Amino acid sequence: MAKYILRRVIYMFITFFLIATATFFLMKALPGSPISSAAKLSPSQLAIVEAKYDLDKPVAVQYGKYMLNLAKGDLGVSFQFKNASVTELIMKRLGPSFLLGSQGLILGVAIGIILGMIAALRQNTIWDYGSTLIAIIGISIPSFVFATLLQYWLAVKWQIFPVALWKDGWMSSVLPSIALAMGPLATASRFIRTEMIEVLGSDYITLAKSKGASGFEVAFKHAFRNALIPLVTVLGPLAAGLLTGSLVIEKIFAIPGIGEQFVKSIMTDDFPIIMGTTLFFSAFLILVIFVVDILYGIIDPRIRLSGGSN
Amino acid sequence: MKNSKFLWLFGLMLVLSVFLAACGDKEDATTTKEDKNSTTETSKETAAVIDEDQVLNLIEGAEIPTMDSSLMTDQVGFIVLNNVNEGLYRLNPENVAVPAISDGEPTVSEDGLVYTFKIRDANWSDGSPVTANDFEYAWKRAMNPDMASEYGPYMMSGVIKNATEISEGTVDYNELGIKALDEKTLEVTLEKPVPYFLSLMSFGTFYPLKEAFVTAQGDNYAKNSDSVLYNGPFTLADWDGTGLTWKYLKNDQYWDKDTVKLTEINVDVVKEVPTAVNLYTNGEKDRVGLSGDYASQYADDPEVVNQPDTAVYYFKYNQERLGKKSPLANVNIREAISKGFNKEDLTSVVLANGSMPASYLIPKDFYFDEDGNDFRGVNGDMTAFDLEAAQAAWEKGLAELGVKEISIELLGSDSDVSKKMDEYLKSQLEKNLPGLKMSLKEVPFAVRLDLDTNQDYDIEFAGWGPDYQDPYSFLNLWETGGGNNHMSYSSSEYDQLLKDINGKLALDPEARWNAMAKAEKLVVGEDYAIGPVYQKGAMILEKSYVKGIAKHPFGGDYSYKWAYIEGKN
């Protein structure tokens, strides 16, 4: 186990390094300039501004400098926010994104699992159709449509929750979290339903039943556990996406999150933020995948985390 | 089979419910509108004195990127700066530059080169006095190469003595033409007489900075609202440097604090218009800018205020694409396109956001002579929609080029409104100019800039907002080889006019005015170097109790110094 984890950690570093390198060169291939008033500056003045941000150096030199700074934990200073360090910006913006993401994920997965199980256990009944319909709605209607409807009905019309802005504490997070939950809800319910139906029809369930196991026992002890594996696989990347910000939802509810900022940084060629945010996202995703692999072993003891010596 | 029918039924119900919800929206909107009407009328009847509670709630469309006046380049930043700081001059509600930190008008040397300002008794928000040194320090700081300021050299070059040489690196920044003769006397030496110099003094880059404070803050300077000093009508509060929210609080140290009525302004950044409109409808915000579909939806709302802007949008005709002569090198082709589409329909139906058709370069309500005559009156509309003239020029152009068909690419932005507009322009021009094939290329701003710099386009849809209150801010864009030209337009007559406008005619307002009129006529109505399309306008929803917000044609767009709340309760 220890050997396996060590090997995985080394792979994680290599992956991270490759992503950093690829992003850096892709970013340099973006057209345009991060200097907002470049068109207004004289060539000599433009040269001074470019020199300040090392943009006048060859790309290889910029890359070397960037990687050295990265090793020291320095992600540089943003072009848009002229004296804000990228680390500071990410840290400030991450809190709201993380809160919304985790609430949305937990809510969505919890309800999704319940709906999926009901659908599987009551196959081809009104319960099944109902939860399937909810899943279809969740998948086919984008989260921003839910967000707009929730905002209109629950905030503007009935005034239960704030319309937008990040000012009313936890209450501000309710509507965006619900809007975000629809995606994972649909995914979770679909996976659980399909997997459980398959598992419920397998031989060992028939055996368990014939041995006198109760319906509850069969559903939770045997079927549910096995149905969780594929769900965990898709939930990993889904969690990384949700926790690191949803740009549309953040924009609709005017939340100071990282998602919208990331898109803006690409539009304005704000290299330090593009790099910083991408690296943060990738590090997070790499970590999530790692955790998912560990979880496999816990959920299903048949999957052994053995080392490469076998 | 049974399954699918069931699902189909559910699907139908879903569609119906969404449809009904949408209908509900409309009804509600109407009711709200009527309610608003009655509120407006009541408030008009009852309002007599201004409210006790002077709090304004506003929305901005973007964050403040920096509060360092030497580094500031963006619209939102300049709005904030204009309200929390003050320079030698300030634009009043009528957009006339009036003395602010300058104690009355300066004395000017006979040759128009040396201005001597007296500094009035004004304080920074920490209680210390604003001195002449604060201006000298700020201006030199903006020219210091270590700062790598973008607007410092841009605004000062060719205006303040030595600024051009400093930005080229041949003269030390300490040699800039500004000197504090004593605590209260400031001497500014210009490169040449500059007729619009005093209005320039209201621009944020020229505001003072207290050296001791800036130095003490070091790298932390202007990182949040606590690490800046204020000398304007308001101070900034609760701004963390990158956040979506901030406040303006009345500045008790401001020299003209008795004029300021608002005690607090709460600002939140909301980037989605529907969200902003919801906040407005809920009463959380007092004013919101409309765009896109929302502009046409609210066009007849009694709370809508139309606000003309001074940005002008036009076609840039590239005469040499990637070093090869393009069809647009032909003046008749350019004339045909300039006059070949209906601008009225474009602004009233397609844009429908308060913008107005433009057949000129220098915007309306921007520049006036001493008697208050708008410069716009001089040349009138030079490229108004004229199908006959357009087609005649088109035929002539085709004959000169010896072709029957021309394919042209229109380069535009990738926003929804731009795409809609480009489609309209394409259909109009293809219909009105037989033989024209127009392809559309819609790209993000950064890409467009890149294509512009490399002159890799046929026609580019571009725009310009002025940096100072003078037609020269627009006219100098088309100088031969100029940084914004990028379309191979070159006219020695035009270049000479620019030289005169910015040189020997500086002290002769009438001759200068005429020269500027001639230059505009040349670039728009004779050489058809550019094809003006529209002058930008803004549509704003504003509660009837909000009074006195001043809109400016350049620099910081708004002043809240004279704003107040009347009849809210």
TrEMBL record, chain A:
A cellular component annotation (GO) from this entry: plasma membrane
Membrane association type: Multi-pass membrane protein
Pfam families in the cross-refs: BPD_transp_1, BPD_transp_1_N
Coiled coil: none
Transmembrane segments: 9-27, 98-121, 133-154, 174-192, 228-253, 273-296
Organism superkingdom: Bacteria
Localization, UniProt: Cell membrane
Ranges where the ABC transmembrane type-1 domain occurs: 94-296
Key word Transport present: yes
Membership in a protein family: Belongs to the binding-protein-dependent transport system permease family.
Protein name: ABC transporter permease
Source organism (scientific name): Psychrobacillus glaciei
TrEMBL record, chain B:
GO biological process: peptide transport
InterPro entries referenced in this protein's UniProt entry, alphabetically: Peptide/Ni-bd, SBP_5, SBP_5_dom
Highest taxon of the lineage: Bacteria
Major site of localization recorded for this protein: membrane
Localisation: Cell membrane
Xref: PROSITE patterns: PROKAR_LIPOPROTEIN
Domain Solute-binding protein family: 99-485
SUPFAM superfamilies in the cross-refs: Periplasmic binding protein-like II (SSF53850)
The entry's keywords: Lipoprotein, Palmitate, Peptide transport, Protein transport, Signal, Transport
Membrane topology: Lipid-anchor
Family the UniProt entry places it in: Belongs to the bacterial solute-binding protein 5 family.
Protein name listed in UniProt: Peptide ABC transporter substrate-binding protein
